[in-house]
Q: What sequence folds into this?
C-alpha cells in the first residue's frame, strides 16, 4: 500500500505521515529531508545552491534510510532545500531514489510536495494537507522555541510564505494537489483530530479502490 501526503511547509503533513505509517505498519520517507540533505551538503562544501552537477552527485550518494532529521529540520536549511529543489536533474535523481524506497517493502507513506502528482501517481490514497499561513507560522515558531531557539511568528510567516511561493511557482513538479487528492485543512485541529480524519480518508480511499 502506498500513501502520498503533500502540502505546504509546516502544514502538519510530516507528523501525519509518521503517524499513518505507524498505524498501517508501513515505512515512512519524509522527502523534504532528501532536498534538505542536498542543500545542507552544498552549503557545507561552500558550493553554489544552483550547482546542479554537485547537487546530483550528493543525491546519488544519499542514504535515504538514515537521514538526520534533527539536524536537517533546522529552519534555515528549509530555504536552501527549496532553492536546490527547482533544479530538474536533481529532482529526477531524487525522485528515482524516492520511488525505489517506496517500492522496497510492503508499502510506504511518503510526504512532500509532488508525491501524489509525480513520485507516486498511483498511490492508493492521496492527501493534500493545508492550514492557514498564520497557523502554520505559529506552529513552526512554537516548535523552534520548544527546542530552545528563538523565533518570532512574523519572521517565520515571511520565511514560509517565500518558500511556499517558490515551491508553487517553480516549473518542475510545483506544489499543488493531485486531481484525486483529498484536501485536509488542519487549521483549528489538534493532531489527534487531524490524525483521525486522515485515517478515515485513507480507509475510504482504500475501500473505493477495492
Ligand atoms: O517538507 P520540507 O519543508 O522539509 O521541504 C523542504 C523543501 O524541499 C521544500 O520547501 C521544497 O522546496 C522541497 N521539497 C520538494 N519536493 C518534495 C519535498 C520537499 O520540492 N517532495
A:
Amino acid at each position: 500500500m502506498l500513501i502520498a501526503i503533500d502540502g505546504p511547509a509546516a502544514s502538519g503533513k510530516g507528523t501525519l505521515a509518521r503517524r499513518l505509517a505507524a498505524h498501517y505498519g508501513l515505512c515512512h520517507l519524509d522527502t523534504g529531508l532528501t532536498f534538505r540533505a542536498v542543500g545542507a551538503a552544498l552549503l557545507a562544501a561552500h558550493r553554489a545552491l544552483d550547482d546542479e552537477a554537485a547537487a546530483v552527485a550528493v543525491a546519488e550518494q544519499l542514504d535515504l534510510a538514515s537521514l538526520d532529521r534533527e539536524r536537517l529540520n533546522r529552519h534555515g536549511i528549509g530555504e536552501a532545500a527549496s532553492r536546490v529543489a527547482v533544479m530538474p536533474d536533481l529532482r529526477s535523481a531524487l525522485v528515482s531514489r524516492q520511488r525505489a524506497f517506496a517500492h522496497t517493502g510492503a508499502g510506504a507513506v511518503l510526504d512532500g510536495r509532488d508525491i501524489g502528482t509525480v513520485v507516486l501517481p498511483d498511490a492508493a490514497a492521496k492527501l493534500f494537507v493545508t492550514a492557514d499561513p498564520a497557523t502554520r507560522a505559529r506552529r513552526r515558531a512554537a516548535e523552534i522555541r520548544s527546542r530552545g531557539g528563538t523565533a518570532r511568528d512574523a519572521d517565520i510567516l515571511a520565511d514560509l510564505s517565500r518558500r511556499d511561493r517558490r515551491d508553487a511557482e517553480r516549473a518542475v513538479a510545483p506544489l499543488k494537489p493531485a486531481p484525486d487528492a483529498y484536501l485536509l485543512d488542519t487549521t483549528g485541529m489538534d493532531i489527534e483530530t487531524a490524525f483521525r480524519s486522515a485515517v478515515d480518508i485513507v480507509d475510504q480511499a482504500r475501500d473505493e479502490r477495492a
In short: The two ends are 12 Å apart (CA to CA). The pocket of cytidine-5'-monophosphate is lined by residues 9, 31-32, 35-36, 78, 81-82, 85, 112-114, 163, 167 (CB under 6 Å).
